[in-house]
Amino acid sequence: MPTDLIALCVDANDPHRLARFWAAVLGWEPADEKDGVALVPTDDTGFRIRFLPSQEPKTGQNRMHFDLTSTSLEDQQQTVARALELGARHIDVGQRPDEGHVVLADPEGNEFCVIEPGNDFLADCGFVGALACDGSQEVGYFWSAALGWPLVWDQDQETAIRAPHGGPKVTWGGPPLPPKTGKNRLHFDIAPPADGDQQAEVDRLVSLGATRLGIGQREAGRVVLADPDGNEFCVLPRG
C-alpha cells in the first residue's frame, strides 16, 4: 500500500516565530512537538507543517513553496496585506510584470505566492492551492507512485498530483531544474500505512527510484532517503 504524507518540514532559525506567522496566515492550529512546533490543518490539507530548529542560514531559493489562492482581487490584496503586517516581504524571483500573482517571503525568507483570482488550475482547491516544486517529470511520477496520489497534470514535462480526498496539489515545473546546493530547508516526512513495515516501505521506495542517504537525523528511527531529483525526505516508523 502507498505511504502516507505526514508533514512538510521546514528548517527554521526560530521555529516558534515562524509557526506563529504561518498559523496566522493559514488559520491553522499550533501544536507543540518534541522537536520543534507543528501546525495542524483546519482545512482539507492532509498533512501538518513542522518547524524544526536549525542554525543554518537560508541560502538560495527553496525548491518548494506554497501557492495560496484568492477568491477576488480584494481577497488577494487582503491576504498580501495580512502577510506583510505579520512580517512577510515582497521579493523578486524573476516574475514578469504582467503576471497576476504576488511573490512574498516569510520572516525567514521562504518564498510563497498569493495567486490571482480566476486561476483555472487551482479553481477547485482551497486556500492552500498547491505546494509548487522545482522538479522533473520523473520525480512527479515517483511521488505519485510513492503516495498513491493520481496524476492530475502531465504535460510538457510538468506534472502534478493530488490526494484522492482533495486538498492542495503538489506540482513540479519540469526543466530546467536549478542546481541543488546543500540540504533543502523543506522536506517531506512520510510513514507507512497503519499496518505497514518501515523497512519494507524503504525498500519499496528505493525500488521506485529513491536513494539511501548516510546522513544524520534529528529523531531516532527515521530513515533519510532522497527522491530522484536528490531532495531529502524522511521515512518515519509507524506508531
From TrEMBL:
Domain of life assignment: Bacteria
Q: Which Pfam families does the record associate with it?
A: Glyoxalase_6
Q: Which Gene3D superfamilies match?
A: 2,3-Dihydroxybiphenyl 1,2-Dioxygenase, domain 1
Q: Where's the VOC domain? A: 2-117, 124-238
Record InterPro entries: Glyas_Bleomycin-R_OHBP_Dase (IPR029068), Glyoxalase_6 (IPR041581), VOC_core (IPR037523)
SUPFAM superfamilies documented for this protein: Glyoxalase/Bleomycin resistance protein/Dihydroxybiphenyl dioxygenase (SSF54593)
Name used for this protein in its record: VOC family protein
- Annotated organism of origin: Blastococcus jejuensis
